[in-house]
Amino acid sequence: MTFLLVTAVFLFSLKEIDWTNFLPLLGTKVGDVVWTGVKLGISDYEGYEVFLIILPFMLIPGRAPKAAVLGLGLNLVFRLMILVATVGVFGMHTVDFLWPVGMLAKFVEVPGGIFDRLEVAFMIIWVSVAFSSTMLYNYFASLGLSRLMQFKEQSLFTFALVPLLYIISLIPANEIATEMLTRLEQVLAVSICFATPLLLLGFSWVFGIKDET
Amino acid sequence: MLNRLAQAYGFRTMFIAVFSGALVYFVDSRQMRAKRLERETRFARIVGLGYMIGGPMLWLGIHLVLRWMG
Prior knowledge:
The complex is a heterodimer.
Chain A: H1 2-13, H2 30-44, H3 49-54, H4 64-90, H5 100-107, H6 118-148, H7 156-160, H8 162-170, H9 175-207
Helix pairs in contact in A: 1-4, 1-6, 5-6
Chain B: H1 2-8, H2 11-34, H3 38-69
C-alpha cells in the first residue's frame, strides 16, 4: 500500500517537476557532496539495527543478507523517488517546509478529479506506517528488557512500556522541540548502531568466537 | 519543571497508565500463571498494581502541589 501511494505521488508529480531545479549537476566538489550525503544518509538509515536484532529469530539466517539488501534497496528507491519529486517540484524552496513530502502530496493533482486531496490518503497510510515501526520498537524494547531481567516471556513489558512511551512522546512542547529530540535520538541511535556491532565483532575476534548466532 | 510534568502527565496519561496497569495485572499475570511462571506472575502483579495505584496518586500529587504553589 505504501509502495502504491509513494509511486502514485511520484507519478502524479512527474508533470510538475521542473528539471532545471537539479542544475547545475555536481556544481560543488564531489568530496563535499559525498561527505554531506554520508552525514545525512547515516542518520536516515538508523533503522537498519532491526536486521541485527531479528537475525537470531529468522527461520533461515543464511538468507538474512539477501533480505537486508532487498529491504534497504527498496527503501533507497522510495527515498530517491521522493527526493527527485520533492526537489524537482519545489526546488530551493524545499528547505522552507518542515515536512516537504506532506506538502508534495498536498500539491499533487490526480487526473480525472478522483481525489481532490491526495494528502489525506497519504497521511492515513503514513501514520499507519509510522505506528507499525513504533510497534516493532516496542516489541524489541520489551524483548530486550525481558532478556535483561531473565524472564521467559517478553509480553510482560509490552503494555507496561506504553505509559512511558506516551509520556516521552509528550515531552517536546512544539514542532521545533520535536525536531531537536529527533536529531538527538538520531545521533544516539547512529552511535549505538555503529559502535555496538563493531564492539561485538572486536570481542568475537579477541575471544575467538566463530559462527555462533 | 513541575508545570511541564503536569502538562505531560495529564488526565489522559493517567488513564493510559491505569489501563495499561489493569491489562498487565489482569491479562498478563493470568497468562503467566497459566504458564506456571512464578517470577513473571509476581512481576506482572507488582507492575500492574503499581500503575493502577501509582498512576492516579502521581496525577493527584502533581495537581495538589501545583494548586498549593498557586
